[in-house]
Structures are given as C-alpha cells and as structure tokens.
Amino acid sequence: MQIKQNYVVGTSGYSFKDWVGTWYPEGTAGSDMLEYYANRFDIVELNFTYYRMPVARTLDAMIRKTTPNFRFWIKANAKTTHEQDRSIAREYLDNISPLVTNDRLAGVLMQFPQSFHRTVENRKYLAATLEDFASVPVAVEFRHRSWENPATYEGLRDRQATLVVPDVPDLPGLFRTPVMATSPTGYLRLHSRDAEKWYAGGAERYDYNYSQEDLTAFIQAWEELAEPLQGVYVFFNNCHRGQAAQNAEAFRRIVEQI
C-alpha cells in the first residue's frame, strides 16, 4: 500500500494522573506533562474548554511550553454544544485568540450529545452556530444516528466544516459513518469498540486498547479516498491508563513502516 494521506496524530487530552508510570515517566508532575507530550506529538485536543471557558493567559502559557509547530484542536464549550446557548460564541473566540494570533489553532471541535437529533430546530441551530464560528476552522462530531444523512454531509461541505468520523461500538442510535471528508481535512476520533462499557460511565467507556490489526485497517480505509487530503487528524480518546498515547504512537509506526 502506498501512503498518500498526511496523518497528524495525537490524543484527546494529555493531563491524566493514570498516564504517569504507564506513558509518562514515573514522577512526572502535572505541570510538566504538556512539554513532555509536545516532544512526542505535534497536536492535541484540549478538552477542558468543554467544562469551562478558555482563558487567554492559560493558552499563552501552553503555547510557551510547546514547540512552534505544535497545534491545538480546542473543544467547544458545553453551553454551545449541549445547552444550545449561542451567546458565548464571541467571548469564546476572543479568549482563544492567542492560539489564532500565534498560528497554533488547528480548529474548534464541536462534539454534540446523543440527545442532539437531526430535527429541523437542531439543523437550524447547527447552521447558526457554524456561522458564529465561521472565523476559525470547525470540526463537528455527531453522536446520534439520525445525522447519517447525505444532506448532513452536503451542509457541512457548503459551510467548509469538517466531519468527525468517530470509531464507536455498533449500538442502536450511535452515529457511525464510513470514512469520508466534508472539507480538505479528514478527522478520525477513536473512542472504543466495547459495547458493554459504552454506557457504564466515562472512565469505563474509554478503557479500550486498539490492536495492530485495528490500526492498520483504519489506515487502509482512509487510503481508499479518491483524492489526497491536506491532512487527516487522528485522535485517540481511549484515555484510560495511557492507552491513547500508546495507540497513537503505534499508529504512527505503522504509517512509517508502510
């Protein structure tokens, strides 16, 4: 197989206590995690901004701890994706301006909940929210299967928004789509394939280890796209005990070997 896609690989978050001794060296302090991570990966998803608004000085400090080529995908706040509150969009964009001005922002990730179904009202909300964030690249992750619709993908293309292709268990109601891209970049988020743990809670949901065969299959699937993309972002969210970082490194090794 000849590799034609450009893969940019990282993890969903980096600051986890149970990564110390499993991926981070023993004794690694939380304040040293990002610098260690950035010496091994070129990109990360920041998830803490889902729970609280980003603060410019915090992002400035993160920039200083990383190399000039390091980039961030930053998750939209819960008010935007889960509470359908558009009023915070300007404040959010203002607060992430250090990433923009320093050319460190890969984009804003909007992960909508499984309760966000493809209704007329929600389609209008999504369109309006994408307009609110039109000044930055945006990726959209759906959780409910009702969004598996050609009109969904066409709408994202029209707005130059990137579709997130999630790897999740084959459960009723969960959004699952074949590999595709609605913008010049692809986006793959690997969560877990363990159906029994999916609704057991966050910590157990993401306790999953992808095999070499799984990782090779993902690469083969993305190579089947007709046209090369500017990049395919690959993020591992199976964050239990360093598995995400271990799988991300294994993914890169397979690409290099091929």
Describe this structure in words.
The chain has one domain: Alpha-Beta Barrel (TIM Barrel), CATH 3.20.20. The chain is built from 11 helices and 9 strands. The strands form 2 sheets. Strands 2-3-4-5-6 form a 5-stranded parallel beta sheet. Strands 1-9-8-7 form a 4-stranded parallel beta sheet. α8 links the parallel β5 and β6. The model has no long low-confidence stretch (mean pLDDT 96).
Quaternary: single chain
Task: Kindly report the CATH topology.
Answer: TIM Barrel
Q: Point out poorly predicted stretches.
A: none
Distance between the termini: 7 Å
DSSP strand (E) fraction? 15-25%
Number of H- or I-type helical stretches? 11
The CATH class designation is: Alpha Beta
Overall pLDDT: 96
What is the fourth-level CATH superfamily? Protein of unknown function UPF0759
Q: What's the total count of β strands?
A: 9
Can you describe this structure in just a few lines?
The protein is of the alpha/beta class and 258 residues long. The chain has helices at residues 33-38, 48-51, 56-64, 78-81, 89-95, 97-101, 120-132, 150-158, 202-205, 212-223, 243-257, and strands spanning 7-11, 43-46, 71-75, 105-111, 138-141, 162-163, 165-167, 185-190, 231-236.
